[in-house]
Amino acid sequence: MRLLVIEDNAVLSELLAKGLRAAGYEVDLLATASEARAVLMTTTYAAIILDLGLPDGDGLAILRELRHRKDSTPVLVLTARGGLQDRVSGLRSGADDYMVKPFALEELVARLEAQLRRPGQQLGNSLHIANLEFDLRGRQALIDNQPQVLSSRETEVLELLMRSKGRVVSKKQVEDHIFGLSGDVASNAIEVYVHRLRKQLSDRGAKVTIHTIRGVGYLIAEEKRDPV
Amino acid sequence: MIRFESIISRIVILHVIAVAITSVLMSVALSWLLSVATNNIHNDAMEEQAVSLAEHLGLDADGQLSLHLPPNLQGLYSQPYGRYSYAVVDQAGKTLFSSLKDNAPVFAADPRSATVEFLETNSGDAAISGASVRRIVGGRTVWVQAAEDLANSDVLTDDIVNDFYRHVGWITLPILLLLLVIDIAIFRRALWPLRQASETAQQITPARTDIRLPLKEIPSEVRPLVSAINKALDRLDEGFRLQREFTADAAHELRTPLSILRTRVETLDDPHVAKALLQDIEAMSRVVGQLLDIAELEAFAIDPAEVADLQAATAEVAGFVAPLALEQGREIELLGTTAPVLVKGNAEMIKRAIRNLAENAIRHTPRDTVVEFVVEESGTVSVQDRGPGISGEERELIFHRFWRHDRNSQGSSGLGLSIVQRIAELHGATVEVENRPAGGACFSLHFISAAPYPKS
């Protein structure tokens, strides 16, 4: 899968390429907005990593042009500016995700994968946390490579939590994911599904924990061994 | 000295004074002109009467001067009527004929020089005014005097003069007042561009420094003021722009090398060294981020119309910090209302303030304790921990930049609370610090509610 990195700092750009190649991607590097414009007219990439501070123009302009052409290639914006206006305008211009420098390479790869796994995008295999795996194609949970039978509601909750690995999923998001617009959700329905899922996973030896963050939502994470 | 608040009131007051003075002057002038005119009419009439009297002078058979008045003239000059009188005086000053008793002349001292002369005299209370006309009859020079008692003067002219005000003079006042109204209208129209300029100026806030006052239609007298204001705005705008540019440049120059450093360290072979270095880089990145936040806040201004949902902002921050807290063995709970709480302010900035409080709380609360976020309908959010709390003497110090309870503590730059305070200032919000009864600190931010229908 080929990615385009548009970053004017040569050292950072090389390091990014190295990291992304190590994660199994092919990478093209460009340093200016004009080059990027020319290349994007003719070439399609799986995803674009775009630095906003380019020497010959604003990276957001490229993004806007891309979206104007109805090109939905996932774009992950990198910026040195954590500023309020930057953040808002970045997302409004059609960025799929947004990372402020300095970022962890590992997180960049994770977020990129999250984008590539979205429906219609190119990555479609499976999600992992510790010994728990979720096969996105077969919509099947596996513990230690053993397929598990879960109810459809539990499977849906698990998929959502695993897609949002490292992030808190609000109760509202879970409701929307499971019930859509059909409404009619019993107030404790989500709690019940999460409780059941938690029990199923722990009974079957999955080394994961589903944390409840009261008032906020749920978070799936690797089970923590007690600190030494 | 009277001080006028507005140009219009100044104009009205001065105009009213001008109207008062002008109406007095005009009435004086008009009545003077009118009296001159009536006087002329009177003189002309007297001269005419004297001339018509002279026409009836003639010579008798014995060569004596005679005056034969027709009956209508006799009636006019008759004693009972008493309004008009006449006399004919010869060169020696002898009165030849007279309508008066005792054959007296009308005007005693007649200089006998001019062809026609207008004279005035008093007889008792009455003012007598008339004309004296020189005539030569039969080789003898005589002066025919005709006069009118002004006390019995013509009723018509009398009325005109005396009732001038009642009938005509009053018109000057409404005309002048109408002029005043027209003047006010003209001035209001002339000041209209200024009013528009002030409406434009109302929109200028630190968040909208690009607005300039329109010079179009501004009267040339006021134009220097307006362009001076615009230039002052240019300089302010430039200051803000430079500050923003500096922040953006500084961010780029500091964060890009940190990214490079971080990425290099992440690909190191020795995981122990890498872990330690990454912790250092993270601490450094945090300080850089906070310094940039402070720099940005210096040049940031909130649009007064902006409204944010405090509950949603708090929920987002709680969700954002939860993974980190859980990793460090601390829990997060969001309590209080679950309905939107609208407050005045910028959502991103409010999140930043809450996030700084949250990171502070997570750092100070012991393992296996809970950091609680509480949102109240009134527009208050509080972040509560189970840490050591804040001692009385530290309450002011904690908001100072770079202040830390323990100079050697890791992961704290001492900037977080100063950012919180700055954001609170920008929002007109207040920060409160309390110690919880069961131990721990409670930081509260009270924002200005923007609820459309405040609940009582």
Can you describe this structure?
The complex is a heterodimer of chains A (228) and B (456). In chain A, strands 2-1-3-6-7 form a five-stranded parallel beta sheet, with helices on both faces. In chain A, helix 6 packs across helix 8. Chain A is an alpha/beta fold and 228 residues long. Chain A folds into two domains: 2-116, 3-Layer(aba) Sandwich (Rossmann fold); 126-222, Arc Repressor Mutant, subunit A, CATH 1.10.10.10. The longest helix of chain A is centred in the last third of the chain and has 15 residues, at 189-203. Chain A has helices at residues 10-22, 33-42, 59-68, 84-92, 105-116, 152-163, 171-179, 189-203; strands at 2-6, 26-30, 47-51, 53-54, 57-58, 75-79, 97-100, 126-129, 132-135, 140-143, 146-148, 169-170, 208-213, 217-222. With 456 residues, chain B is of the alpha+beta class. Chain B contains eleven helices and 14 strands. In chain B, the strands form four sheets. In chain B, strands 4-3-7-6-5 form a five-stranded antiparallel beta sheet. In chain B, strands 9-11-12-14-13 form a five-stranded mixed beta sheet. In chain B, strands 1-2 form a two-stranded antiparallel ribbon. In chain B, helix 7 (271-298) runs parallel beside helix 11. The longest helix of chain B is centred in the first third of the chain and has 48 residues, at 7-54. The radius of gyration of chain B is 52 Å and the shape is rod-shaped. Chains A and B meet through helix 1, helix 4 and strand 14 of A and helix 6, helix 7, helix 8, strand 9 and helix 9 of B.
* Number of beta-strand segments of chain B: 14
Shape of chain B: rod-shaped
| CATH architecture term of the largest domain in chain A | 3-Layer(aba) Sandwich
Major pleated sheet of chain B: 5 strands, antiparallel
In the sheet with the most strands of chain B, the strands line up as: 4-3-7-6-5
Mean pLDDT of chain A: 85
> How far is it from the N-terminal to the C-terminal residue of chain B, by CA?
50 Å
Round the mean pLDDT of chain B to the nearest integer and report it: 84
Helicity of chain A, in percent? 25-40%
Overall CATH class of the largest domain in chain B: Alpha Beta
What is the N-to-C order of secondary-structure elements of chain B (H for helix, E for strand)? HEEHEEEEEHHHHHEHEEHEEHHEE
Strand order of the largest sheet of chain A: 2-1-3-6-7
Number of domains of chain A: 2
CATH homologous superfamily of the largest domain in chain A?
A: Response regulator
Question: Helix proportion of residues of chain B, in percent?
Answer: 40-55%
Quickly give the structural class of chain A.
Answer: alpha/beta
**Tally of individual helices of chain A:** 8
